[in-house]
Amino acid sequence: MTDDSAPRELAMFPLGGVLFPSVVLPLHVFEPRYRAMVTHLVSGDVEPEFGVVLIERGSEVGGDDQRGNIGTLARIVQAAELPDGRWALVTFGVARLRVVEWLPDDPWPRAIVVDHPDEPELPAGARERWAALQPLVRRVLGLAAELGEAALPATTELASEPGLGAFQAAAAVPIGPFDAQRVLNAAGAGARLELLAELLDEQAELLEGRLRLG
């Protein structure tokens, strides 16, 4: 896998969760520096895009956090400014990125980034592996629903392309942010599907155990 893009400066939004490519992320923006960032991004003078990375340690509010270096380029598709200056956004994960260098958080978090694409070729058997995993995704979603957890319907349609489908599955099932980051970090579709299979098996076993306990 190679990074083919030239390094570029990008506004960044570290979060306590992971955004995957091809997944929608609603955001409520209330911190002053991020309000200013959104106002700048929706001005029409720049592309309405920013990077999302996981906060590995620390808080979303106030800075002084430890951030991951593999993230996702997010594009603002809807933006509404509220009367008190907060923003309600709908964003969409476009593609993976890698942080080359963090810049000072002035006037908002910024970094030098490059694209971080998947390996160019799907590994042999990836489509068959993804097709075999989709019933397990539905099973985990169904078990989560039985337990009353907020989850997408088990009938949710996922992308047929294995790399994107695995991202969407990881976003849908109840795994923690650090496991989600492992999925995002995986080098390509093959490694992503292998890790996803392990995580789905673990979640199915955990959810079934909770159901048995009642």
Describe this structure in words.
The chain has two domains: 8-115, Archaeosine Trna-guanine Transglycosylase, Chain: A, domain 4; 126-213, no CATH class. Strand 3 (49-57) and strand 4 form a beta hairpin. It has five helices and seven strands; from the N terminus they run E-E-H-E-E-E-E-E-H-H-H-H. Helix 2 (126-146) runs parallel beside helix 3 and helix 2 packs parallel to helix 5. The chain has helices spanning 32-41, 126-146, 162-172, 177-185, 189-213, and strands at 8-15, 24-29, 49-57, 66-67, 70-81, 87-103, 110-115. By secondary structure, the protein is α+β, with helices and mostly antiparallel strands. The N and C termini lie far apart (46 Å). The mean pLDDT is 92. The longest helix is centred in the last third of the chain and has 25 residues, at 189-213. It is globular and about 50 Å long. A five-stranded mixed β-barrel has the order 1-3-5-6-7.
Strand and helix layout:
Layout: E1 8-15, E2 24-29, H1 32-41, E3 49-57, E4 66-67, E5 70-81, E6 87-103, E7 110-115, H2 126-146, H3 162-172, H4 177-185, H5 189-213
Parallel strand pairs: 1-3
Antiparallel strand pairs: 1-7, 2-6, 3-4, 3-5, 5-6, 6-7
Helix pairs in contact: 2-3, 2-5, 3-5, 4-5
